[in-house]
Design goal:
Length: about 375
């Protein structure tokens, strides 16, 4: 496998500053009202623009673009440009959907219809008696060896009401913990899996891979990743644990697992100030998020209220790693206020695209103050 070497976080060029950007909340989310993504692809400064988009999305967690005119091909091209500009491993690409042969879909565009998703995963389509959906918060394809770095959802049909998507900042999940708890998670690994997805992939004719990365092959879906990961675009640490697909922490007892999983769930569900709610207004709206920096959840409340149809495109990112000396977003911000560096990265662990952990590269001094390194 080709080795992925992280060179440090990326800074913006500033070309994106001419567009109107509204923050959804202080913690997470931005909305662009006048940026046409199709025109951006044609722009003479497209490289700088998509680099700035990548950094903005990684810093803010999620960005929503209104009134877009993307088809499947331009949707894939936009996400590919963003991921490539962020320093994605050169071996990686847009993810192929393992289930696309079952639905005659575009191999790299997942068509999301509530009834289809409910049937595949056993969800109830009637929310009337549902008392908790907390377990449905998730990061996309976290059970792959190289999970998604950037994820996206474009709506083709929008119901009159309902079907919102919520996002929660994984940077804040890390920052809300005390330093001893941060250190606890930094020393843990997480077992990921999805029995429903694995069962669906067992159907004859499904696609075994590679799915966006040479490491994403077969239907094992039993990846182990660090519980805290460093985002290679920002250099900030984020919690990469809990929610759907998280099978538990390696080495803990069942009771310890339950308590730690419940704690992470509580941090998400009891702190609405680290969340952003995206209401889909019209066909063509698209959300693009850094899958390493947020968890998200759909709202299953559209039964009988109209049709909701979405198109999801994912990029395969790097093998998750934790950089020794990496810092939380708040520590970095405090360092900026004090005129300091905000933290330095001295060592990077687990950086092979093949998903092999234990690789250590010494002497990578990534400046978290925002020096361009790609």
């Amino acid at each position: 496998m080709t080795e992925y070497v992280w060179k440090g976080p990326i800074s913006k060029t500033g070309v994106i500053d001419v567009f109107n950007q509204k923050q959804l909340t202080p913690s997470i989310g931005s909305e662009f009202t006048d940026l046409d993504l199709v025109e951006a692809l044609k722009s003479p400064n497209a490289d700088a623009l998509f680099r700035d988009l990548a950094v903005t999305i990684s810093e803010r967690g999620v960005a929503i673009f209104r009134n877009q005119h993307l088809d499947n091909d331009t949707h894939k091209e936009v996400l590919n440009r963003i991921a490539s500009a962020s320093g994605r491993p050169s071996t990686n690409d847009i993810m192929t959907n393992a289930l696309y042969p079952l639905y005659n879909d575009d191999p790299k565009v997942i068509t999301l219809i509530p009834e289809r998703v409910a049937e595949r995963y056993g969800y109830e389509t009637d929310p009337q008696k549902r008392q908790s959906s907390a377990h449905e918060w998730h990061s996309d394809m976290s059970f792959e060896q190289n999970p998604s770095d950037y994820s996206s959802l474009r709506l083709g049909q929008v119901p009159p009401t309902g079907g919102d998507t919520l996002y929660a900042s994984a940077y804040d999940l890390y920052d809300r913990m005390s330093e001893p708890f941060q250190k606890l998670l930094e020393n843990l690994s997480v077992q990921w899996g999805d029995p429903h997805y694995t069962q669906a992939c067992g159907t004859e004719g499904t696609y075994k891979g590679p799915r966006g990365s040479p490491a994403n092959v077969g239907f094992g879906f039993d990846a182990v990743h660090p519980a805290v990961r460093t985002n290679p675009v920002t250099g900030w640490n984020a919690v990469f644990a809990g929610g759907m697909h998280c099978q538990g922490f390696k080495g803990l007892t069942a009771e310890e697992n339950t308590r730690l999983m419940d704690m992470i769930s509580d941090l998400i569900t009891k702190n609405h100030d680290i969340q952003a709610r995206v209401t889909w207004e019209a066909p063509g709206d698209i959300a693009i998020w850094d899958n390493r920096a947020v968890k998200h959840i759909p709202t299953r409340d559209v039964v009988g209220k109209g049709k909701r149809k979405g198109y999801r495109v994912l990029s395969a990112g790097e093998k998750p790693f934790l950089a020794e000396g990496g810092v939380g977003r708040q520590v970095w911000r405090d360092g900026q206020k004090d005129g300091g560096m905000g933290g330095r990265v001295e060592k990077v662990q687990a950086v092979e695209t093949g998903g092999k952990s234990g690789t250590t590269l010494e002497g990578i001094n990534g400046n978290l103050n925002g020096v361009a390194a790609h």
